[in-house]
Amino acid sequence: MYQKSQTTKKLLLIGGGHSHAIVLRSHINNPLPNINLSLISENLETPYSGMLPGHIAGFYTHDECHINLQHLTNLAGAKFYINRVINLDLNNNRVFCENLPPIDFDILSIDIGSIPASLTVTGAEEYAIAAKPVKRLLAEWEKLCNEIQDYQSSVRIGIVGGGAGGVELALAMQAKLTNERELEIHLYNRDRNLMSSYDYSIQKLMKKVLLRRNIKLHLGETVSKLEKKSKQGNIDKINLTCESGLSLECDRIFWVTQASAPQWLTTTGLTTDKKGFILINNKLQSVSHPHIFASGDIATMVNHPHPKAGVFAVRQGKPLFNNLRRYIFGETLKSYIPQRDYLSLIGTGDGKAVANRGNFTLPPSRLLWFWKDWIDRKFMQQFK
């Protein structure tokens, strides 16, 4: 049995990612004792990554694939600061935001996700639409869907990044727009293989699926420059150039490259890996500051590194909540060991999905999509 903590502590959550959404929901059901709980997030809602491709393909509404953080924090009796964090003062336990006075904390947890890497490519920051923040991605996608009826010619979309995110995005966009207007989707990847962190069996299968859907693949191509080429009405045409000299004019370019960490983390004093992600131990604690926890894409487990995927952020939510509770009571924290092989259900945008776990892969089927849909809706139902 837990003993009640004698002093009130300030627990501050930075970021409204999957893990923190689960912490808030767990606090509603089983309140942490003597805690002033607060959340800082740039947005009122957080997207659930498992349903985003389905939303882009038209299977889910906006509300069905977003968690309402305002609603969660209200139910949890927590303060909600809608703002952007720009730095930490770990000597005095303070968080600095863009438009707020410093916020004090006793215990801090960080779950801010990641941002796409390589926006340093010439013209990318100005002309590419990054996969994150998702709010801007969805706004640009809706704008494109509305503009298509004014296009005088075929629509050409470039997607940079051939990981699972880029592949799913290409299939979802193709499924949504294929009947609207003559459409070309070009997928660029610097590696010769798609989805390089996955087994070869699913790499081979997804390549076949993409080609069957007439998505143009440019493998082994590194994008080196984006620039505005011409204008058709109110629509800018963007020229994409690769190191090989390959060049293509596109109506929109979406950037879905490997994950990277926000720059401000490098100035905080937290120990990070070479890419700037917070290094954490098996208890989900910072290896340099034990009163600071981290989870999701922004964290790298020292002993159990794994891909930056939403499935891990979801699974870290409950262990994070339990260890926050134990830390408050001064009890021994429990280790979280992520699965080495995990099930991936990847939608193909046409009411089907493929399944992969390790070297076991199943081809697209409607049954797998129904299974994925059931899992995703069940996850979201706990926040309604």
UniProtKB/TrEMBL annotation:
Keywords: FAD, Flavoprotein, Oxidoreductase. Signal peptide: none annotated. GO terms for biological process: aerobic electron transport chain. Residues 14-317 form the FAD/NAD(P)-binding domain. The keyword ATP-binding does not apply. InterPro entries: FAD/NAD-bd_sf, FAD/NAD-binding_dom, NADH-Q_oxidoreductase, Pyridine_nucleo_diS_OxRdtase_N, Reg_chr_condens. Its cofactor is FAD. It holds the Pfam family Pyr_redox_2. The keyword Nucleotide-binding does not apply. One of its GO terms (molecular function) is NAD(P)H dehydrogenase (quinone) activity. Belongs to the NADH dehydrogenase family. This is FAD-dependent oxidoreductase. It comes from Brunnivagina elsteri CCALA 953.
